């Protein structure tokens, strides 16, 4: 758990979720068939449901379904905090990943996003559990580049977080 009591709701909690803050970023950009959804119900706007269909065959087991924050100009300063606290209601046996990015490059000439270092934390949730809190300290996030570890990455700039993602994969 965090060493301080200083907290801030980024999504949910005291802040209602907004579907306009999120968009899909699925393996369809690479020819896969996975599809994700983030659903916010009008009667419970402080809770979001992340779900989808994971295609693990088309790309030889490399399928992924994810939702990411929108907007190229958004910045979160997370430096006063010890990590992320995820409030999970229920899950299945799939592997999930929370991803942070502190750099976004302009789109390439073909309109696609350019790759940058991602800071990832993988987790699974006991499908028999009825929810709970998962605290992830910053030191547990690992730098990756295009899905591979990047040991020589510069440290995560917690004052300059530009994107959050939530992904399911095998």
Main attributes?
single chain, 170 residues, mainly beta, Jelly Rolls, seven-stranded antiparallel beta sheet, two-stranded antiparallel sheet, 38% strand
Question: Approximately what portion of the residues adopt beta-strand conformation?
Answer: 35-45%
- How many β-strands, per DSSP? 11
* Secondary structural class: mainly beta
CA gyration radius, whole angstroms:
16 Å
Helix coverage percent: under 10%
Distance between the termini: 27 Å
Query: Main sheet, how many strands, which sense, barrel?
Result: 7 strands, antiparallel
Number of domains: 1
Family: Belongs to the CIA30 family.
Organism: Coleophoma crateriformis
InterPro entries: Galactose-bd-like_sf, NADH-UbQ_OxRdtase-assoc_prot30, NDUFAF1
Pfam family, one: CIA30
Describe what is shown at a glance:
This protein has strands at 22-24, 35-41, 44-53, 64-69, 83-88, 95-101, 118-123, 132-137, 142-145, 148-149, 163-169. By secondary structure, it is mainly beta.
């Amino acid at each position: 758990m965090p060493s301080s009591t200083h907290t801030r709701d980024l999504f949910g909690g005291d802040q209602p979720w907004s579907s306009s803050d999120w968009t899909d970023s699925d393996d369809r950009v690479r020819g896969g068939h996975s599809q994700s959804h983030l659903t916010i119900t009008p009667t419970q706007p402080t809770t979001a449901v992340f779900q989808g269909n994971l295609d693990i065959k088309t790309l030889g087991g490399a399928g992924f379904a994810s939702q990411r924050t929108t907007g190229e100009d958004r910045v979160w300063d997370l430096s006063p905090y010890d990590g992320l606290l995820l409030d999970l209601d229920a899950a299945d046996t799939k592997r999930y990943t929370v991803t942070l990015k502190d750099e976004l490059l302009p789109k390439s000439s073909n309109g696609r996003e350019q790759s940058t270092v991602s800071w990832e934390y993988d987790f699974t949730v006991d499908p028999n559990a009825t929810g709970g809190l998962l605290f992830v300290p910053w030191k547990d996030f690992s730098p990756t580049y295009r899905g591979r570890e990047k040991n020589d990455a510069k440290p995560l700039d917690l004052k300059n977080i530009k994107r959050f993602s939530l992904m399911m994969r095998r």
